[in-house]
Design the sequence.
């Protein structure tokens, strides 16, 4: 799981995981691990068919407790006589993944003939369903009707993916990636305090070509921006990311516009900024681009014995331009990567770029900056509130920055 999915801090929240009879049942074990990385407590119910593929012991060994495997024994560790009601009383979210066609039908029609379907019926919180089955079973009108009914009943539905399935067929029916199910789970239990807000986030490096094979860039991985995007998405925002070249993956609910150069990033932002409520610039934009040598590859012989000189031109300052265009109802967050004079530079950039909030870090400090999962921030807002935060995971920094922006 990439670092921007590693949101911890859901301490005290509990997820109840239902696992049904599918070859994809083993993937539910990945989910248990991911939930635990997020500090969630996990309990589970395996249907009888599930136990033909994966045993309860595997879930217990990974820390799920209790694990129910049948209707009447209450599961090996359950200490309640009312196991069919327990998730409804203590869990914050219920996730059925993978959900077989049979279990989907039971959930859609409100049947309650095994432990999982009973528990689902007695669960009034958010319920997520992520099916996995043979493509022909998925396409069957009965399954499609059940899928529709689950939507009408308020289930959060995560569609299966297309691809090769275990039986050798190709089509739609593969369980959605763990990251999708994990993200939907965190979203279901996050405060929705950014709901309805349209958020633009720039992230990653930009890449400025010089000849057919060489470019000018920087080592930004885009992780800080990805954490800002994920946190906003989890909290209900409608998120658009304008991303320079990175290896980052995003859940399908986040819109991604991929660009290469600073000018392309500038153009993409200009086009969407008027429709946005909040902008957040984390991208490490190249301030200058080389005047291109040409479309060909530069050959050593081209320079003769004189060496070579590369000329640079200024790139637009994306954030400063957004700041200049900012309406009264829009807010802007900036970042500053410095190697000294952190506070002075944060203050200068907050003012010159017309920001509401700036987060500055010293990239020369260990654990703060490019290529690491943590950051140590000095945070300053337009009202003059200044805070120095300890070194924190970038996910936590992102969460706190959104908290800070929502202060007033
Ligand atoms: N930024 C931007 N467009 C640029 C340069 C920077 O949008 N051409 C944004 C960054 O995404 C960041 C903020 O401006 O949010 C500050 O970037 P930084 O590189 O720290 O500062 P610069 O304005 O480039 O100034 P300097 O290089 O002199 O520190």
Sequence:
């Amino acid at each position: 799981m990439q670092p921007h999915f590693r949101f911890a801090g859901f301490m005290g929240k509990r997820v109840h995981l239902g696992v049904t009879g599918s070859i994809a049942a083993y993937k539910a074990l990945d989910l248990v691990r991911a939930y635990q990385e997020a500090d969630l407590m996990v309990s589970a119910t395996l249907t009888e068919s599930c136990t033909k593929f994966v045993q309860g012991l595997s879930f217990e060994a990974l820390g799920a407790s209790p694990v129910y495997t049948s209707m009447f024994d209450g599961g090996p560790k359950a200490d309640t006589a009312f196991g069919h009601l327990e998730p409804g009383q203590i869990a914050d979210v219920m996730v059925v993944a993978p959900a077989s066609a049979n279990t989907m039908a039971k959930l859609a029609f409100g049947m309650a003939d095994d432990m999982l379907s009973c528990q689902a019926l007695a669960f009034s919180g958010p319920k997520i369903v992520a099916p996995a089955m043979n493509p022909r079973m998925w396409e069957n009108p009965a399954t499609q009707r059940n899928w529709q009914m689950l939507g009408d009943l308020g289930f959060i539905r995560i569609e299966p993916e297309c691809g090769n399935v275990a039986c050798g067929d190709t089509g739609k029916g593969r369980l959605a990636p763990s990251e999708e199910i994990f993200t939907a789970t965190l979203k279901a239990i996050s405060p929705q305090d950014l709901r309805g807000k349209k958020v633009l986030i720039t992230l990653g490096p930009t890449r400025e070509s010089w000849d057919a094979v060489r470019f000018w860039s920087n080592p930004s991985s885009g992780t800080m921006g990805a954490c800002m995007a994920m946190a906003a998405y989890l909290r209900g925002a409608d998120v658009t990311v304008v991303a320079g070249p990175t290896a980052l993956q995003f859940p399908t609910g986040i819109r991604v516009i991929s660009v290469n150069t600073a000018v392309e990033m500038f153009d993409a932002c200009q086009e969407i900024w008027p429709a946005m409520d909040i902008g957040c610039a984390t991208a490490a934009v190249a301030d200058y681009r080389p005047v291109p040598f040409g479309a060909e590859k530069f050959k050593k012989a081209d320079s003769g014995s004189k060496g070579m000189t590369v000329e640079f031109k200024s790139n637009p300052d994306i954030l400063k331009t957004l700041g200049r265009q900012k309406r009264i109802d829009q807010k802007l967050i900036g970042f500053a990567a410095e190697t000294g004079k952190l506070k002075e530079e944060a203050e200068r950039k907050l003012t010159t770029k017309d920001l509401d909030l700036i987060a500055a870090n010293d990239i020369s400090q260990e654990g703060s900056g490019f290529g690491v999962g943590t950051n140590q921030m000095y945070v300053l807002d337009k009202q003059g509130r200044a805070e120095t935060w300890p070194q924190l995971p970038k996910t936590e920094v992102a969460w706190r920055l959104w908290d800070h922006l929502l202060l007033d």
